[in-house]
Design a protein that fits this description.
By secondary structure, this protein is mainly alpha-helical.
């Protein structure tokens, strides 16, 4: 489950301030991804209970069309 952010967005930011915040958070997201890509991906797949196709069980009892 995703944690609920405890941040409220000010509704009176200037375009300059909004852009500066956007740039800071965008850079932070990029740095987090560069450092924790594998951990984030694994955690996300566990949270969604999804795994890549090569890790899923194959059903060998299916009827073949030929």
């Amino acid at each position: 489950m995703k944690p609920t952010p405890a941040i409220t967005l000010p509704l009176d930011l200037s375009p300059e301030a909004a852009t500066a915040l956007f740039d800071i958070f965008n850079e932070l997201a990029e740095l987090l991804w560069q450092h924790y890509e594998l951990e984030i991906t694994e955690w996300s797949m566990q949270e969604r209970n999804q795994y890549p196709a090569n890790q899923q069980a194959l059903d060998f009892d299916d009827d073949l069309p030929f």
